[in-house]
Amino acid sequence: MIAAVLGSGAWGTTFSAVLADSGCRVRLWGRDEIVAEQITTMRRNDKYLPGITLPAGVSGTTSARDALSGAKIVVVAIPSQSARAVLEPLAEYLDPDAVAVSLMKGVELGTDKRMSDVVAEALGIPLSRVAVVSGPNLAGEIAAHQPTATVVSSTDEATAALVAEACSCDYFRPYTNPDVVGVELCGAVKNIIALAVGIAQGQGMGYNTTATVITRGLVEITRLGLALGAQAETFAGLAGMGDLVATCASPSSRNHTLGRHIGQGKTLDEAIVATRGTAEAVKSSRSVLALARTVGVEMPITEAVVGVLHEGQSVTEMASKLLSRPRKTEGL
Ligand SMILES: NC(=O)C1=CN([C@@H]2O[C@H](COP(=O)(O)OP(=O)(O)OC[C@H]3O[C@@H](n4cnc5c(N)ncnc54)[C@H](O)[C@@H]3O)[C@@H](O)[C@H]2O)C=CC1
Ligand SMILES: O=C(CO)COP(=O)(O)O
Predict the structure, then answer these.
(1) Final residue in a domain of this structure, among 144, 178, 212
(2) Residue pair 188/107 in contact by the 8 Å Cβ criterion
(3) Are 11 and 132 in contact (CB under 8 A)?
(4) Atom 2 of ligand 2 has which residue's CA nearest to it?
(5) What pTM does this model have?
(6) Residues of the chain below pLDDT 70
(7) CB-based contacts of 111: which residues, under 8 Å, 6+ apart?
(8) Domain containing 150: what range?
(9) Rounded to whole angstroms, how far apart are CA atoms 299 and 119?
(10) Is any atom of ligand 2 closer than 6 Å to the C-beta of 105?
(11) Looking at residue 332, what is its pLDDT?
(12) CB 198 within 8 A of CB 260
């Protein structure tokens, strides 16, 4: 099976290695010539995955046409807000039977669409030929072959099964789940919650505050998901609780790291520079909040993150606003 991966950052490169270790021949496309050449000639991507040797089945290219030619699986691993613009001109090179896979954990600004919808629209294919992969999947750990599970989700069972088979190897175990809405929302919103945890920890808060934000964050994710038609079980699974815990706990999470910089007093611009790599919650916090408002769902932590990142609110104001909300019974 030939697979194309679009985006040679941390996750696109790591997922290429997973696909190759699962038996695929992988063409990894990126816009950076030096990265593409290093991937092909040295089997390394020092910019995004220092210290990792890639499997022989991965080659780099800057030609999207070459990458897509004959590829039966096309994986998209670029920042969510750039996906539509990058994919639209590539639709003409897509194999007529190809299945597209979104690895992205964001919601498009302006349209408030989930990434599977964006991918389907941009490539001009039905949702039955789109899958998403989401779970507790910190790239660096998977690149080092640490045992990890994930969720492959599609509205079409055969599409999910094809993708799951293509990314099954001795250190990576996919489970399928038909709840695309739930799986994608979990991935996008946990980044916002991890950013909030980072802010709290940057302010010197400990485990009680961390656990409070994680737990109420899961309530917030679940509330939004259920309002949009997701299945309740998804939130307790790998894409839900699993990814929330991994991202909120790991110092290697970019969203968590960016939040920590904000909590320590950096401006948003300074925090972006200090974080390096894509922290999707910076932009998706706004689109997720807009989505929540369209369905009348309260998301106080997301609202607080938007307030601090984009509306000039101080972290102290954010905390007191959250703590002074009217008392209520626990639960959704
Ligand atoms: N890194 C991780 O551990 C994981 C990341 N993800 C998700 O995967 C997606 C990609 O993340 P990473 O690979 O980690 O980001 P990254 O910051 O490591 O790499 C992003 C890549 O996209 C490329 N890129 C950016 N704008 C582009 C454009 N307009 N055209 C072409 N290429 C462009 C960059 O050059 C870079 O190669 C995000 O949605 C992220 O939330 C999901 C699971 C794990
Ligand atoms: O999605 C991830 C882990 O599952 C990666 O998180 P960050 O994007 O915050 O690094």
Answers:
(1) 178
(2) yes
(3) no
(4) 138
(5) 0.98
(6) none
(7) 118
(8) 2-178
(9) 26
(10) yes
(11) 83
(12) yes
CB atoms < 10 A from the CB of 208, how many?
9
CATH code for the domain in which residue 59 is found: 3.40.50.720
Six-digit token pair at 331? Answer: 């639960």
Nearest-5° angle of CA 323, CA 325, CA 327?
100
**Phi and psi, residue 147, nearest 5°:** -55, 130
- What is the distance between the alpha carbons of residues 106 and 283, in angstroms, rounded to a whole number? 8
E strands, 130-277, in order: 130-134, 148-153, 172-177
Strand 73-76 to 99-102 pairing: parallel
Distance 253 CA to ligand 2 centre (A): 5
142 Cβ below 6 A of ligand 2:
no
Q: Answer yes or no: are the C-beta atoms of 188 and 284 closer than 8 Å.
A: yes
Q: How many CB atoms lie within 10 A of CB 325?
A: 9
Ligand 2 center from residue 152 Cα (angstroms)? 16
CATH number of residue 239's parent domain:
1.10.1040.10
Strand partners, 74: 4, 100
- Same domain membership, residue 87 and residue 173: yes
Q: Check: CB of residue 245 under 8 Å from CB of residue 186.
A: no
The residue with tokens 């699974």 is 237
Distance, CA of 115 to CA of 105 (rounded, Å): 8
Atom 10 of ligand 2: nearest residue by CA position: 253
Phi, psi (degrees; rounded to nearest 5) at 36: -60, -40
Pocket lining: 190 vs ligand 2, CB cutoff 6 Å: no
Q: Domain boundary at 125, 145, 178, which?
A: 178
* ipTM of the modeled complex: 0.99
First vs last Cα of the chain: how many Å apart? Answer: 44
Residue 230 and residue 218: Cα distance in Å, rounded? 14
Helix (H, G, I), strand (E, B) or coil at 76: strand
Q: Please name the helix (run of DSSP H) or strand (run of DSSP E) that holds residue 184, with its range, or none.
A: helix 180-202
CB 54 within 8 A of CB 20: yes
Is 63 labeled as ligand-binding?
no
pLDDT, tens digit (0-9, with 9 covering 90-100), for 144-180 = 999 999 999 999 999 999 999 999 999 999 999 999 9
Q: Does 190 participate in catalysis according to the annotation?
A: yes
